[in-house]
Amino acid sequence: MSKAESLNVEALEGYDASMFDDDGRPKRTGTVWSTGAHIITAVIGSGVLTLAWAIAQMGWIAGPIALIVFSLVTLFTSYLLADCYRAADGTRNYIYKDAVKNYLGGIKYKFCAIVQYSYLFGVTIGYSITTAISLVAMKKAICFHKHGHNHDCTLSNNPFIILFGLIEIVLSQVPNFHELAFLSYIAAIMSFGYATIGLGLSIAKVAEGRHVTTSITGKPIGKDYSAEEKMWSCFAAIGNIAFAYAFAVVLIEIQDTIRSGSLTESKVMKRASTAGIMISTIFYLSCGLLGYAAFGNDAPGNFLTGYGFYEPYWLVFTANLFIAIHLFGAYQVFCQPIFAAVEAWCGRVWPGNKLLSKKYKWWKLRLSPFRVVWRSLYVVFTTFVAMMLPFFNDFVGLLGAISFWPLAVFFPIEMYMVRTGVSRSSCRGLFLQVLSGFCLVASLLAAAGSVRGLIQSLGTFEPLQSRS
């Protein structure tokens, strides 16, 4: 809605100015707490489960340093991005790609849209795979407890991927980001829950005193593990770490939920980002380092579903239940921008179309026939792709690699420089460009490692035969 349209709203019969913000949209109600919950939901996701494996590839020194560097870069660029929510004249950018369009325009806007929606689409597929693996792990926890750790408890992932899809069809009818706070609160609690359980189980395993091999440089080069394989594994580990900090893609959308008040939206967003990233980093370091200490160089790709832990089985069951509940909400955080973009485009192409505008009230939701059909088809499609591509670590690493530099570094830096008028030849401008170049190299290396891993996985891949 433009400013002129916002002002004209006052002429409408029954208009109550107190119910609307300065742009004419219904008042936003987001707080530091709800914003922080959205961030934690987006950040502490399935990425935490891969960090023990990532540390095992890089070792005691490079692994923690990589985690800390990525956290600091993410926090810094999230500050820059938060300042870009409002333009210099005070107008809002409602979604990430609109901010890029308004500040940078042209080819950069198109590139951003392709990368952002490709990433969001990929994350929803990744979360479908991860949730199914966790649901299978719940059944396997009971199976191993009953029949012993050597029993074959392998199950097909496909029924669980389908179950996840059916639940997401229902949750996808939540209209927009502004009404997702309840899901994010639940998901944030769940993420703390399973990260804490993983932490506790790792501490217990370390306390058992069983000998495991760890190293300053990670998994050692040997007869069955060449220097080339070591290099590619380290690159893939960088991608996994980058994925663990990928929330810039939805930062503007989250910031658009913050209510206007004594603090500007950017200050609230910065406080929430600081808290969310600091909490996430503490959990990441704890889970990654203790997971490596517990399993050594043979740390599984997913330390709660790779069956490094068998007992107490009920705790393993609970941790995987928490993962599944968290990802039910996280899926929505990442697919809502796709839903909003498609629905806005259809509204522009077919203005006044009854199929698009008609609403039915069901319980507390306002259901739209178009929304029900289109969002359901989207979930069905991502569910099918998840059954076709059941790869976890390499898929997660590739998503992190292709999105981290453009969405979390390049565009925030470029938009901030345009908004504040920073000269490229100034000390600040040079620093920002060097930072962007460094992150580009890291993303390219991570992408190369993950692509190689995917190619190797495809060598033994059978469509629709995913098992764990």
From TrEMBL:
GO terms for biological process: amino acid transport. The chain crosses the membrane at residues 35-55, 61-82, 117-138, 158-175, 182-204, 230-252, 272-293, 313-334, 372-392, 398-418, 430-455. Residues 28-455 form the Amino acid transporter transmembrane domain. It is found in: Membrane. Keywords: Amino-acid transport, Membrane, Transmembrane, Transmembrane helix, Transport. GO terms for cellular component: membrane. InterPro entries: AA_transpt_TM. This is Amino acid transporter transmembrane domain-containing protein.
